[in-house]
Specification:
Number of helices: 15
Bound molecules: pyridoxal-5'-phosphate
Strand content: 15-25%
Helix content: 40-55%
Shape: globular
Largest sheet: 7 strands, mixed
Distance between the termini: 48 Å
Radius of gyration: 21 Å
Low-confidence stretches: none
Mean pLDDT: 96
Strand order of the largest sheet: 2-8-7-6-5-3-4
Length: 373
């Protein structure tokens, strides 16, 4: 055995011992399941108009953008999507990326320098953590949703600039950030609030326009939103919403934008079509929240702020066992185990979906009650 294979085997054995081995499985090969694990909150990935939007764009522009955006990879389907996203969320400008991960890497790395302090909530998504690692800035991590701690770091900083990183709905616990207070603290201390709307777009705020829109913060100079097209919009890709000046800065300086092939036309076309569906069928947004509420009651946890519910489990093995028992009864649920949890606590993660029928919700809540009894 080479040193390399020995190292791989050692790491695999350690994972197995800790009950932390992850396995991939094709979800289309396990028979019909009620999905309480995925992020296609509104069921739009299979909506005929969304699929048709993807097909139309692929037929018109091809399967790929063919180049990075600054070369020949900017297509009118990107410009249309950016205009649609800005109009929907109330921001003056948008820039599309090939993933939400890229949008976060680009935003944090391009809006900071050696004279910037990044103040990051302890629960932010891995893409924002990696973005901090990429940035050449000092980083302070504050306890979850602790506005006073954010203010202490902003007030005491020696760096000229500062940005604060949060998610509007947190992907693990499913709770909301205190956006109004955070934006106020940022404004008073000349800092920029970067808020990831990945789990709020299409689910929260008026007709799913997101929590920054709901808080009246969309379009303010010191507020930047990032998002993904891969959750409630049922497509793939990401975007940044901000002022035209921020957009222009990203186009010129953000390496994950400049050195990356433009978003695939089908993904852009699908996302625009999804926004159109949400505008015409706002009842989907109300439905996903009603399903979340039913799941919260069954799981005996507080009402969710969005579509994500977290149920703490004694340990990783218990979490995996509960997922397997749910699967045997036709319900797919997810779990987060270390290192994917911000606090070492393993949790079941349930997501609500607007397209579940009443019967499916009934079945899901029955199984959930049994699992937790
Ligand atoms: C909060 C958050 N931000 C960003 C991302 C990354 O988005 P994408 O999957 O489009 O790369 C995700 C999840 O995928 C997420 O949950």
């Amino acid at each position: 055995m080479s040193k390399f294979t020995e190292w791989l085997a050692g790491r695999a054995a350690a994972r197995e011992d800790a009950g932390l081995t992850r396995r991939l499985f094709a979800s289309d090969s396990s028979g019909p399941m009620i999905d309480l694990a995925g992020n296609d909150y509104l069921g739009l990935s299979r909506h005929p108009r969304v699929v048709a939007g993807a097909v139309r764009a692929a037929e018109r522009y091809g399967a790929g953008a063919g180049a990075s955006r600054l070369v020949t990879g900017t297509l009118t389907v990107h410009e249309d999507l950016e205009a649609d996203l800005a109009a929907f969320t109330g921001f003056p400008a948008a820039l599309a990326f090939s993933t939400g991960y890229h949008a976060n890497l680009a935003t944090v790395s391009a809006l900071t320098d050696a004279d910037t302090l990044i103040v990051s909530d302890a629960h932010v998504h891995a893409s924002l953590i990696d973005a901090c690692r990429l940035a050449r800035a000092d980083v302070a991590v504050v306890p979850h949703n602790d506005v006073a701690a954010v203010e202490r770091f902003l007030a005491g900083r020696t760096q000229e600039r500062a940005i604060v990183l949060v998610e509007t709905i947190y992907s693990v616990l499913g709770d909301a950030a205190p956006l109004g207070e955070l934006a106020d603290v940022c404004r008073r201390h000349e800092a920029v609030l970067v808020a990831d709307e990945a789990h709020a777009l299409g689910v929260c705020g008026v007709e799913g326009r997101g929590l920054l829109h709901a808080a009246g913060l969309a379009g303010q100079d010191h507020v930047v939103a990032t998002l993904t097209l891969s959750k409630s919009l049922g497509s793939q890709g990401g975007a940044v919403l901000a002022t035209p000046a921020v957009r222009e800065h990203l186009v010129n300086t953000a390496r994950p934008f400049i050195y990356d092939t433009g978003l695939a036309p089908a993904a852009a076309g699908a996302a625009s079509a999804a926004l159109e569906v949400i505008r015409h069928e706002p009842e989907r947004v109300a439905r996903v929240r009603a399903v979340a509420s039913a799941l919260a009651k069954a799981g005996d946890v507080p009402e969710a702020d969005g579509a994500v519910l977290a149920i703490a489990m004694p340990g990783p093995r218990e979490a995996v066992d509960a997922v397997a028992r749910a699967a045997q009864r036709g319900i797919r649920i997810g779990c987060f185990r270390p290192p994917s949890t911000p606090d070492e606590i393993s949790r079941l993660r349930l997501t609500a979906h607007a397209h579940l029928t009443d019967d499916e919700v009934e079945q899901a809540t029955t199984v959930l009650r049994d699992l937790l009894s």
